[in-house]
């Protein structure tokens, strides 16, 4: 049993963080949590398997993870897996193709932020300067 209390936030951090990024003490505490609370280990393994599939861009491993989550509605990530399944073609392309619209999405987000900040202030000339400033 653990000699000190672990918050849910701390445990969630350990579960979602790759093991090699945790300190020795954090790894020991995580292992104690996994031993003490049997319902945490399956979640930990599911998250790590998901992270590895994403990190390695292994579509087949991801599909195995997805099928496992969809096999039972009591699985912890069942609702998330259903949403992924509904757009599986886009997910497949994200795994298999080298293209990304991340840069475009970042620019759109930046423009929307500027527009929100500028609402009701100054004029079109200042808005234009702010938009073009970082290009």
Explained architecture:
This protein has helices spanning 8-16, 24-36, 40-55, 59-70, 78-86, 88-96, 102-118, 124-133. The termini are far apart. It has 8 helices and no strands. Helix 3 packs antiparallel against helix 4 (59-70). The longest helix is centred in the C-terminal third of the chain and has 17 residues, at 102-118. It is mostly helical and 135 residues long.
Count helical runs: 8
Radius of gyration: 21 Å
The largest β sheet comes out as: none
- Average pLDDT score: 90
Characterize the overall form: extended
Which range best describes the helical content: under 10%, 10-25%, 25-40%, 40-55%, 55-70% or over 70%? Answer: over 70%
Distance between the termini: 55 Å
How many structural units, i.e. domains?
A: 2
Specify the structural class. mainly alpha
- Unreliable runs, pLDDT <50, ≥5 residues? none
Order of helical and strand elements: HHHHHHHH
Proportion in β-strands: under 5%
Number of strands: 0
Write the layout of secondary structure elements.
Blueprint: H1 8-16, H2 24-36, H3 40-55, H4 59-70, H5 78-86, H6 88-96, H7 102-118, H8 124-133
Helix pairs in contact: 3-4, 4-5
Protein name: Transposase
Domain Transposase IS204/IS1001/IS1096/IS1165 DDE: 9-121
InterPro entries: Transpos_ISL3, Transposase_DDE
Short summary:
Residues 9-121 form the Transposase IS204/IS1001/IS1096/IS1165 DDE domain. The radius of gyration is 21 Å and the shape is extended. The protein is mainly alpha-helical and 135 residues long.
Q: Which terms summarize this structure?
A:
2 domains, 135 residues, mainly alpha
